[in-house]
Amino acid sequence: MVSDAISHSVLPGIVIAFLISGSRDSLVMLIGAGLLGLITTFIIEFLHQKGRLQADASIGVTFTWLFAIGVILLSYFAGDVDLDQDCVLNGEIALLPLDLWYTEGGTNMGPKTIYVSGGITLLVVLVIYFNYKELLVTTFDSGYAASIGISIALWHYVIMGLVSLTTVASFESVGAILVVAFIIAPPATAYLLTEKFKTMLLLTCALGILISISGYYVAVWLDGSIAGAMSSMSGVFFAMAFARYRWTKKRIT
Amino acid sequence: MVEKQPTPLIEIHDLTVAYDKKPVLWDVDFTLPEGKLIGIVGPNGAGKSTLIKAIMGLIPMQSGYVKLFGQGLDKVRDKISYVPQRESVDWDFPTSVLDVVLMGRYHKLGLFKRPRKADKEIAMDSLRKVGMEAFSKRQISKLSGGQQQRVFLARALAQQAELYFMDEPFAGVDAATEKAIVALLKDMVSKNKTVIVVHHDLQSVRKYFDWLLMLNTRLVANGPVDQVFTNEFLEETYGGKLTLLSEVTELMKKEELPNREKK
Ligand SMILES: Nc1ncnc2c1ncn2[C@@H]1O[C@H](COP(=O)(O)OP(=O)(O)OP(=O)(O)O)[C@@H](O)[C@H]1O
Ligand SMILES: [Mg+2]
Q: What confidence tens digit (pLDDT) does each residue in B212-258 have?
């Protein structure tokens, strides 16, 4: 839900970044979008806690409002420039190998996305590895966390910052369908398969890889859309996990 | 030389807390001594949990200040342990009993440090004290209510604090376990720790506590149990709940007679 909101509300960030820098360089856009992602979570939290608005209501209000601002900015200032939400956020996985990174000397370093997404992945893994305990205690028992002096707000923003970075970068490279499918399906599937938190994290990653590979071959086989095939595969995996879950449950009771 | 004035362990001055402008605690003012098992009683919604949360700095106060060990909270956090009301967390969270108890060690670890073997031993030891060592690997979603409560207690024990705030630690705990835990708390108090417990069962107040705080938005009474656990104060705390009151009064009459004979 939050990641969906972020994906919409980062639009003004992208437009502003474009207006300031005048370039369509993806890194600049990413920074603008990332900042707006953080501001989004900040506003959502603010409305929820200080404004006593329900969580989903504050998410809804925030992202529609920011998205609207983005659209207005876009049509007002950048109407005649080739910049629309599609070209920025609707990446297409099949085109990835074409967006290459050349060094000054002209050496081909491979697709850009590998570096951007890879860097973000590394960051996420490092934060989870080194701050596992802070993330665990603030999500499980925030009152207790605060009582031993661990800042709930700080870790909340760390998580949300990472979510917004990941979302934005993925939107940019593989497009909306895959982001939504991959943010929800693998963890939901893993949740049905195990109760251990660490196993769940690892299983989620494994499932992500499995879905990508199998989805890719299904797409090649059917000669269809890659994003569509991967999303369908994530549904298939989820259905299998769900069946297994129901079956083991029935046996016990 | 002037003799050192004994500073009270907890000093609350003029504390007022409100949710949405509706005061829940009004001008609460008291001090509590060290090395005692202290009970807090009052009806539902009296502000007992709110009082503890305000002391722990979890909710803003409208006025007043709190001093612990004669200092501000941030200087003495390491010496304080807080056991939230059990319902305050999601017990379906995918984590194990041992992982929850290990949280009791987090305050001693630095930002990027992970729990070490010594921490695990302390956590296991705490689980043993509440009779839960056999459950250390169990997922918390598969515990009964009383077992969840014992996990929270074990986490508090693992903190090795000087001062404990426990919000209804006996809610849903069976009689035998409650007895064992009270014995544990009394043992801690005998080692000069201070334990403050929000409690609902008026019948066991005399048996458990040395000191009692009676609360209903305002402070009703604060002092040694035999001085403040009286009809008059109970009536003031619980207001018109007469059936309850008369039951307790009956009980107290029964209890008081032999007590007097002893003296
Ligand atoms: N987050 C909140 N927002 C608004 N009002 C609240 C909030 N938390 C508590 N209250 C109100 O404050 C009052 C005191 O609540 P508190 O939880 O401190 O009571 P309590 O004495 O611990 O009760 P119990 O015995 O039921 O645990 C209640 O009237 C409650 O409705
Ligand atoms: Mg309470």
A: 999 998 999 999 999 999 888 888 888 765 455 556 556 665 555 54
Question: Which residue in B73, B67, B52, B35 sits closest to B169, CA to CA?
Answer: B52
Is the distance from CB of A163 to CB of A3 less than 8 angstroms? Answer: yes
Whether A70 contacts A11, CB under 8 Å = yes
Strand runs labelled E in A25-145: 100-102, 108-111
From the CA of B168, give the closest atom in ligand 1. 27
**Cβ atoms B107, B78 nearer than 8 A:** yes
Atom 26, ligand 1: residue with shortest CA distance: B44
Tallying the residues shown for chain A, one arrives at: 253
Give chain B's contact residues with A (Cβ, < 8 Å).
20, 53, 56-58, 74, 77, 80-82, 84, 88-90, 93-96, 99-100, 102-103, 106-107, 109, 111-112, 114-115, 139, 141-142, 155, 159
ipTM: 0.82
Q: For residue B219, list its beta bridge partners.
A: B215
* pLDDT tens, residue by residue, B103-138: 999 988 877 788 889 999 999 999 999 889 999 999
Angle of helix A2-9 relative to helix A55-77, nearest 10 degrees?
20
Question: Which strand (E) or helix (H) includes residue A251?
Answer: helix A226-252
3-state SS, residue B57: coil
- Taking CA–CA distances from A195, the nearest residue in chain B reads B94
CB atoms within 10 A of CB B149: 25
Contact B62, B16 (CB under 8 A): yes
Lookup: tokens for B101: 């108890």
Closest partner residue to A147 among B20, B56, B109, by Cβ? B56
Q: Do A146 and B56 touch (CB under 8 A)?
A: yes
Helix (H) or strand (E) holding A63: helix A55-77
CB pair distance less than 8 Å for B84 and A196: no
**A13 exposure class (CB count in 10 Å sphere: 0-12, 13-18, 19+):** buried
**Ligand 1, pocket residues at CB < 6 Å:** B 19-20, 24, 42, 44-50
> What is the rounded CA–CA span in Å between residue A15 and residue A95?
23
Name the H helices within B84-241.
97-102, 117-129, 145-158, 175-190, 205-208, 225-228, 231-238
3-state helix, strand, coil in chain A (%, to 5): 80, 5, 15
Q: In chain A, where are the structural domains located?
A: 175-253
Pick among A138, A148, A150, A201 to test the B interface (most B CBs inside 10 A): A148
For residue B40 the two structure tokens come to 């807090």
Tell me which residues of chain A have a C-beta less than 8 Å from any C-beta of chain B: 52, 130-134, 136-137, 139-141, 143-144, 146-150, 191, 194-197, 200
Residue length of chain B: 263
Cα B85 to middle of ligand 2, angstroms: 7
In angstroms, the first-to-last Cα distance of chain B is: 39
